[in-house]
Amino acid sequence: MSGRRSARMAYGALGLAVAALWAFPVYWMVLSAVTPDARLRQIPPSFLPTNATWSNITSVVTSSNFGNALRMSLSVTLVTVVVVLAFAFLGALAISRFRFRGRRSFVLAVLFIQMLPAEGLFIAQYKMLSSVGLLNSVVGLTVLYAAAIIPFTVWMLRGFVAGIPADLEEAAMVDGLSRTQAFLRITFPLLAPGLVASGVYAFLQAWNEFTVALVALPAESAQTLPLWLRTFLAASVNRGVNWAEVMAASTLIAIPVIVFFLLVQQRMASGLVSGAVKG
Amino acid sequence: MTSTTAQPGRPLAPVVPPPDAVVHRRPRRPLTPYLLLVPAVGVLLLGLGYPVYWQVLTSLQEYGLAQQFGQPPTFIGLDNYARLFTDERLWAVVARSIAFCLVNAFVTVAVGLGMALLMRAVPTIVRVTLQVTLLLAWAMPMVAAVTVFRWLFDYRTGVVNWLLVRIGFEGYAGYAWLSQPLTFFLVASLIIIWMSVPFVALSLYARLLQVPDEILEAARLDGAGSGQILRSILLPMVKPVLSIVLLLQIIWDLRVFAQIRLLQDAGAPVAQTNLLGNFIFELGIGRQDFAGAAAVSIFVLLLTVLLSWPYVRSLVKEDAA
To answer: Which terminal residue of chain A, N or C, has fewer Cβ atoms less than 10 Å from its own Cβ?
Structure first.
């Protein structure tokens, strides 16, 4: 057995090496964000936080366009999440609780649409928004985001809705609740985890999106955070990039995403395990 | 996993067979489901339906600068397609995109499979460490990830060049990775593989967990070595998930646009590093050739639908279950 144990140790060491390699870019981003720029220009590089500083982060936050971009990102993301959740939930209800003519076509369409690449549509979307004067607007971008995110969200919520037996609702109705009451008091609370997961999904998509924003928001004053980060880096290139500030900016954008992602991923993972037990 | 988002392929959860859903079939008022679908369908028609319609129409018309200034477009049939598909620049881009896509998809799936198997073989604490780091990489916003890699590969003070010089490759002092097409695509591939492996590895690992311990125990009692167990039990068990994630990677890697665009900012030769999405962008936004851009877009959309067919079919089966 000692042969197997030593093999396990060797695999363990390999696993740790791989983990270190995969984590390094994230570590390097955060480390650079709290290191003075002058130190980053020195060789050899420092692999541990020596004389850490908040000054990169404060100078990014107070820089001219960060506030604007943050406001823009928050408005776009918030409106998108609300619209997507409401519309996708109704759609999911339709396909999981009803059998109707055209249901199969709708499901097929949803599945194909979620595979369509933004790159195959963004020129047309740009022309559409510009012809109705909605370039650089929250409304225009939100319509495009909602259309892109709704298909997968419908599909995701369908699973959650279908997982709640309609019998539960019926039992409540036998006990004297109306259909609406039964839905609100029985089904809706059970759906909450699904709605949270879908909402976070929509949040992540809208918050991170770059490609569609690039064509829909050509004005610098209307940039969302991902576009702003690109401009921030480009502006810094002429002066010999201030990587400390650029990494501080990247960290600021990444932190909320990583936190949300880890939260919801755990929730999803427990769902996956229970699925595995049943399947 | 949605279409219009910049990170090709970053769904939220690994692919895993779902629990059986109980669906009750009862006749109800026939109008309700249609009313429930109205808002979603409305947004889809507005945000995607109309652009597709416009694209089909425009790709069949002459739509150049004259039309920008108000002249009505004229119908010219398939001339735009003929013009583009006899243009060798397009074919260079198509060939480059396909090669880039296949290399990345296969490397990603191979590395992901290796990691999934590794996670099975290591002590719990190492496995949890691996899972957390994979989630970290998975969660990184694409723009931030590309920015970090630009810093890692910075020619003057980047840590990669420093390390290469340190271990004896003196030639890499001040080496500009992003100004040569070949090394440009190497960095782009590293970013894409780094970002995509977590999804593949965790999906395959979730599948491996479903292999019953009794089977492995029995195989070991019967004297099977770990190589045999891998070949005869584990690989056949993960094969369905393996083919799905490979297909998804191919579809997602075919549409890489943003990473290339962001890396080109570092001063890469644009014409030699464009992939399909970048080509469309340059044609449409850059040169205002909307008819040409529309024609290439239609080509990309058709290619995607064709490639997506097996995946969608597998999902529909799941829906019917």
So the answer is: N
Determine, for residues B284 and A123 on separate chains, whether the beta-carbon distance falls below 8 Å.
yes
The answer on pLDDT for A185 being more than 90 is no
Q: In chain A, helix, strand, coil percent, each to 5?
A: 80, 0, 20
Query: What chain B residue is nearest to A6 in terms of C-alpha separation?
Result: B122
Residue B282 DSSP label: I
Beta carbons of B196 and B252 less than 8 angstroms apart: yes
- H runs (alpha helix) in chain B: 32-44, 50-59, 65-68, 79-85, 88-121, 124-139, 142-152, 159-166, 181-209, 213-221, 226-229, 235-254, 258-264, 270-273, 276-281, 290-320
Flag if B157 and A229 touch (Cβ within 8 Å). no
Q: Please name the member of B19, B37, B281 whose beta carbon is closest to the beta carbon of A94.
A: B37
For residue B151, CA distances in Å to B44, B233, B266, B280 come to: 39, 43, 11, 28
The 10 Å CB-count burial string (b at 16+, else e) for A96-120 is bbbebeebeebbeebbbbbbbbbbb
Mean pLDDT (chain A, rounded): 87
Determine if the pTM surpasses 0.80.
yes
Q: B277–A211: do the CB atoms touch at under 8 Å?
A: yes
**pLDDT attached to residue B13:** 63
Where does the pLDDT of residue A97 fall: very low under 50, low under 70, confident under 90, or very high at 90 and above?
Answer: confident
pLDDT at B4: 39
Section A168-172 average pLDDT: 83
Q: Residues A76, A141: contact at Cβ < 8 Å?
A: yes
How far is A16 from chain B, CA to nearest CA, in Å? 6
Which amino acid would we find at residue B225? G
Provide the ipTM: 0.89
Question: Under an 8 A CB cutoff, do B43 and A87 touch?
Answer: yes
Contacts of B5 in chain A (CB under 8 A): 118, 148-149, 205, 208-209, 211-212
Residue A268 confidence (pLDDT): 54
For chain B, give the number of residues: 321
Using a CB-CB cut-off of 8 Å, the residues of chain A touching B194 are 22, 25
- Look at A48-57, A206-215, A219-228, B8-17 and tell me which has the smallest mean pLDDT: B8-17
By CA distance, what is A216's nearest residue in B? B285
| β pairing state of B74-75 and B61-62 | antiparallel
Work out the number of other CB atoms within 10 angstroms of the CB of residue A122: 27
A39, amino acid identity: R
The closest of A24, A35, A188 to B160, measured between CA atoms, is: A24
**Contacts of B152-159 spanning 24+ positions with Cβ under 8 A:** B152/A25, B152/A28, B153/B177, B153/B178, B153/B187, B154/A241, B154/A243, B156/A41, B156/A240, B157/A40, B157/A41, B157/A42, B157/A43, B157/A45, B157/A243, B159/A28, B159/A45
Residues of chain B predicted below pLDDT 70:
1-29, 64-65, 68, 321
Buried b (16+ CB within 10 A) or exposed e, B56-72: eebbbbebbeebeeeee
**Distance (Å) from the C-alpha of residue B149 to the closest C-alpha of chain A?**
7
